[in-house]
Design brief:
The chain has 5 helices and 13 strands. By secondary structure, it is an alpha+beta fold. It has one domain. It is globular, with a radius of gyration of 17 Å. It starts with 5 loop residues before the first helix and ends with a strand.
């Protein structure tokens, strides 16, 4: 079996189900929510409890940046998706990095934050396009780039952004360094360590 690309698999199966109104037969992942075009819906993410630890959060210029690694299997389970037994081994090699950006002006849309450097249209294009180019993980002396990213657009009005970065061959139990270059809020290079 070819290595699975989690975001592509979820998107394709969700789109198939949406097109014919049924759950795909013979599919390996069954989604109760929808995701497409690089977005993930609130229904998909409402069961993803992040419980971020303080060491995984940083506040710079009124924006709190929070990161958490989660196995792809746990991520899908929390979304309420069913994974075929035959795919669990492949998915066990994948992890999801949940990145949350929260504005201290919680009553405003994140796109209205005084710190944002792009208008809403440019920011949205960036989030579904090149955001993945600005984040890497370092583990065991290796630099690893994401295989894909999805952006959750429905919480932007609550003063937050959340993105899900997908990685292959990461051990979530090992010390991991996150290197993120923030273009959205102008903070520049940010480094985190998840123990």
């Amino acid at each position: 079996m070819q290595p699975l690309k989690l975001p592509i698999l979820i998107t394709v199966l969700a789109l198939l189900a949406a097109c014919n109104g049924t759950t795909p037969k013979g599919g390996t992942v069954q989604s109760n929510g929808t995701s497409n075009n690089g977005f993930i819906s609130m229904k998909d993410s409402e069961n993803i409890e992040t419980n971020l630890h303080e060491s995984n959060s940083k506040t710079l210029n009124g924006i709190t940046y929070s990161f958490r690694l989660m196995s792809a299997l746990e991520f899908l389970e929390r979304k309420g998706e069913l994974v075929a037994e035959s795919d669990k081994k492949e998915l066990s090699k994948e992890v999801v990095l949940i990145a949350t950006f929260k504005n201290s002006e919680a009553h405003k849309s994140i796109f209205e934050a005084s710190q944002i450097t792009m208008d809403q249209e440019a920011a949205t294009q960036y989030l579904v396009g090149t955001l993945a180019d600005d984040l890497t993980l370092e583990q065991g002396g290796k630099s690893i780039t994401p295989s894909g990213v999805q952006y959750e657009k429905s919480i932007a009005e609550m003063g937050q952004l959340r993105a899900f970065f997908y990685f292959n061959e990461i051990n979530e139990a090992q010390k991991t360094k996150i290197i993120y270059y923030d273009r959205l809020f102008g903070a520049g290079l940010i480094r985190f360590t998840i123990n």
